[in-house]
Automatic annotation (TrEMBL), chain A:
Protein known as: Na+/H+ antiporter subunit C
Protein encoded by which gene: phaC
Species of the source: Agaricicola taiwanensis
tRNA processing recorded as keyword: no
Family of this protein: Belongs to the CPA3 antiporters (TC 2.A.63) subunit C family.
Protein's cellular compartments: Cell membrane
Source species taxonomy: Bacteria, Pseudomonadati, Pseudomonadota, Alphaproteobacteria, Rhodobacterales
Broad class of the protein's primary localization: membrane
Record InterPro entries: CPA3_antiporter_subunitC (IPR050601), NUOK/Mnh_C1-like (IPR039428)
Domain of life: Bacteria
TrEMBL record, chain B:
Gene: phaD
Protein name in UniProt: Monovalent cation/H+ antiporter subunit D
Cellular compartments annotated: Cell membrane; Membrane
Species classification: Bacteria, Pseudomonadati, Pseudomonadota, Alphaproteobacteria, Rhodobacterales
TM segment ranges: 6-25, 37-57, 77-104, 139-157, 169-192, 212-229, 241-265, 285-304, 311-332, 338-356, 396-416, 422-439, 451-473, 493-510
Taxonomic source organism: Agaricicola taiwanensis
Entry membrane topology: Multi-pass membrane protein
Keywords: Cell membrane, Membrane, Transmembrane, Transmembrane helix
Amino acid sequence: MDLILAIGIGALVGSGVWLILRPRTYQVIIGLSLIAYGVNLFIFSIGRLRMNAAPVLAEGPINPADYADPTPQALVLTAIVIGFATTALFLVVLLVARGLTGSDHVDGRESN
Amino acid sequence: MGSAGHLVILPIILPLVAGAVLLLIDERRRALKASLSIIATVLVALTAFALLNIADLGSGGGAITSAYLLGNWPPPFSIVLVLDRLSALMLVLTALLALASLVFSLARWDRAGPHFHTLFQLLLMGLNGAFLTGDLFNLFVFFEVLLAASYGLMLHGSGAVRVKAGLHYIAINLVASFLFLIGIALVFNVTGTLNLADMAVKIPAVEPEDRALLHAGGAILGIAFLIKAGMWPLSFWLPNAYAAAAAPVAAIFAILSKVGVYVLLRLSLLLFGTEAGVSAGFGTNWLVTGGIATIIFGTVGVLASQAMGRLASYSVLVSTGTLLAVIGLADIEATSGALFYMVSSTLALSAFFLLVELVERSQDPVADVLAVTMEAYGQRFEDDDEKDDDVKEVGVAIPATLAVLGISFAACGLLIAGLPPLSGFIAKFILLSAVLGRGDMGGVTDVSTTSWIIITLLIISGLAAMISIVRAGIRTFWAPIEGVVPRVTVTEILPVGFLLALCLGMTIFGERVMRYTEAASISLHRPSGYIRDVLSTPPVPSSTGGGYVP
């Protein structure tokens, strides 16, 4: 489980980093989204990964060690919302840049 | 907690409410929007001064650091707002800059695009929140608020150059935000808390096997803030973005890079200060080295800049570099000098950004880029002037405009270069004496070499700034190709004069300002007071047993 998640986060962030270094704005925004997914999963995993465990506190005496930390789950919600909003804003700027410069190159002109 | 206790949250609430209300008012009712925006900013400034007073003299309880528990949960579980001398100083600085750039924008810039005032108020909210919060994740949220507003302001006025610079600015800041999140996650994983004061308590007790993870988290957080502060080699976005932004936006952006510096100062001294055990002094060498590299990069940029907007942007980098290098020394005297320098240089740079727009108004933007061969573009001046005439001027055109502009320009030059008699000189002088007088305490092994490098660079960067500003001044005021007097309205020159008058005030009342920065620096270097005051703040007892009753 840990390994799969780690590989998943690594693959997401790795492809994201590669994409944001590409010259097309569309590649950059996809790269940013992939990094955002990777980072959100990473924050989520900070609260410990547990399999076959109750998601909420059960009745009776409670051992906190049996449960995942809920704080990162709250944090990741905020991070998702903020990441989503800023990515949407970036998308608009990207479209404006395309309209103004007539090119989808990040520098507004081809670099040849 | 009396009504005075709630003052702490006003600098966040006021701009938020003002921004929301302004959103509902139609864009055509300019006068109403402008006056609402000004009123909100003036109120924030008054609150900031009241808070400065509270932070300096202590409220009734005598605690200098006062914490405000949001939701009335006991610390460390609640999100806290913390007011101490440093955050109060930053609040005042932000409010003063905001007033100046807002008044400046009323002359024409607020009409260059929709929702200028809303974005401006939200930027203020984000800035004030970032300075006040005592919680790492809350800091992230306020950072995003101020960044989201700054994205809008960066693009204000539109145009291909701004959109291009804005695209880079947004992409880089989004990546920095992701790094910020990763850093928070790592630090939270090790310490199990997001409250900065609680974190500072937990850090000395971190298990040795977790310490590498903690340091990795700290380093990643540091990189995120250094991107925002603009440390070389993370600063290539800054000159383009600041030079492309509209003048009042650039003027308020002058404090945006200082937010990164503020957070680094706060975190490095609180989390990795002298009381942090094994982790004490973590990352300070990097700050010094990075700061030195930034000063060099900024100085070369200042010398190479032909356009005044870029000159001002590279001066921002020199200022940031100086601050980072001096903060990295982790010395009480040096930090005190750094705070004085931060206030003085931010005010001066802000005034300079405003001034540049006024001075360059009569010039062709193409000529700025190729200023050396300006003669070739003489023909195009007239076309541009005709275009300028179409823009409706507000207020009276000042006679002898050039004289006023010239004097302000010279004052800005003196401030940025750090020459007497203005506050820039005092700031540089304190820095030099603090760096020179440093004993062999601190984590840096080759103390004298580092100090000498910083001293040399401080002087050289001042010289470079003087050369470039004098060169730009001569070209603009003494040797204009055509005798075009820029049209300047009272509302535009007043903010510049206001900011410069503040610097003059800092010179005259230098001792009082220094006493304040010294006290701020001492409490920063002894974080135990901050930690105790924050963690011992009791929740407000509720009189009814249910919910919070004010």
